[in-house]
Amino acid sequence: MDFTAADLPRVRRFTVTWAAKAGMSADAADDFVIAVNEIATNAVRHGSPQASLRLWVSAGAGIAEIRDSGHWAAAVAPTSLPRRPAEQGGMGLEVARLVCDGLQIKATSAGTAVLLRMTLR
Amino acid sequence: MLSLSSEQRGPYTVVKVAGNLDLVTRDQFDQFMTKVRRANKQVIVDMSAVTFMDTGCLAVIVGHWKKLLSGSGNLILAGAQHRPAKALWITGLAYRLPLYDSVDEAIASADAVTPPAGTQHP
């Protein structure tokens, strides 16, 4: 699905419904939704006003791909950015990394794609 | 969709938050909290009706908490539910921010630690 910032509630509903159908446990689905929401937020806030979400199952895991057509610093150089105090934000990527079983960032000249992986039960 | 209201409970302004705290509602939430913080230094945020919270709005809360602390005020979270407000626990901020199960408990504990005006020792 394509989305803008205003669609974030719809992104979460779409993800939670998909996760249940895919057979993800309720706990894992909660975490997956949190991660998708954080990356989707970064995409429309720092990448491009419009972004897209794709969900599929691969090798016993739920995969989410969030793609935008911009460049956000945290995605381009995730480890080179200094840690900031919590009130300055920027916790989204770290939270997504913590709750998912895998996170992969593909930053190219065409934009940024983040892949999230959550193992199915 | 976010609904915000505030009421006075003794020395505290209790902010009732109902709905989603995300990128869509962040500015609305931040502006409301700024107004509340400028009017009173003792703030309780009732999170019991929050349906979702992202890390951006959590950052807003931390920002107001720190500003209140630096002005010898405080911000207390009440009634945060684990499922919708899980970002609190994932980030570890649940262990730094003052957190109570309910507004009543927050007021009871805050009463116990905050001496009434005029009796405070230097």
Question: Which CATH class of chain B is shown?
Answer: Alpha Beta
- Biggest pleated sheet of chain A: 5 strands, antiparallel
Largest interface: A-B, 25 and 22 residues
What is the number of helices of chain A? 4
For the terminal residues of chain A, how far apart are their CA atoms? 25 Å
Please sum up the structure shown.
The complex is a heterodimer of chains A (121) and B (122). Chain A is 40% helix and 28% strand.
Detailed description of the structure:
The complex is a heterodimer of chains A (121) and B (122). Chain A has 121 residues and is an alpha+beta fold. Chain A has a single domain, classed as Histidine kinase-like ATPase, C-terminal domain (Heat Shock Protein 90, 2-Layer Sandwich). Chain A has helices at residues 8-22, 26-47, 73-76, 92-99; strands at 2-3, 51-58, 61-68, 102-108, 111-119. In chain A, helix 1 (8-22) runs antiparallel to helix 2 (26-47) and helix 2 runs antiparallel to helix 4 (92-99). Chain B has 122 residues and is of the alpha/beta class. Chain B has a single domain (2-112), classed as Transcription Regulator spoIIAA. Helices cover 37% and strands 30% of the residues of chain B. In chain B, strands 1-2-3-4-5 form a 5-stranded mixed sheet. In chain B, strand 1 and strand 2 form a beta hairpin. The longest helix of chain B is centred in the middle third of the chain and has 16 residues, at 55-70. The termini of chain B are far apart. The model of chain B has no long low-confidence stretch (mean pLDDT 92). Chain A binds chain B through residues 5-6, 8-9, 12, 30-31, 34, 37-38, 41, 44-45, 85-92, 94-95, 98-99, and chain B through 1, 20, 22-24, 52, 54-56, 58-60, 62-63, 65-66, 83, 86-87, 90-91, 93.
Task: Describe the secondary structure blueprint for this structure.
The complex is a heterodimer of chains A (121) and B (122).
Chain A: E1 2-3, H1 8-22, H2 26-47, E2 51-58, E3 61-68, H3 73-76, H4 92-99, E4 102-108, E5 111-119
Antiparallel strand pairs in A: 1-2, 2-3, 3-5, 4-5
Chain B: E1 2-9, E2 12-21, H1 26-39, E3 42-53, H2 55-70, E4 74-78, H3 87-90, E5 99-100, H4 103-113
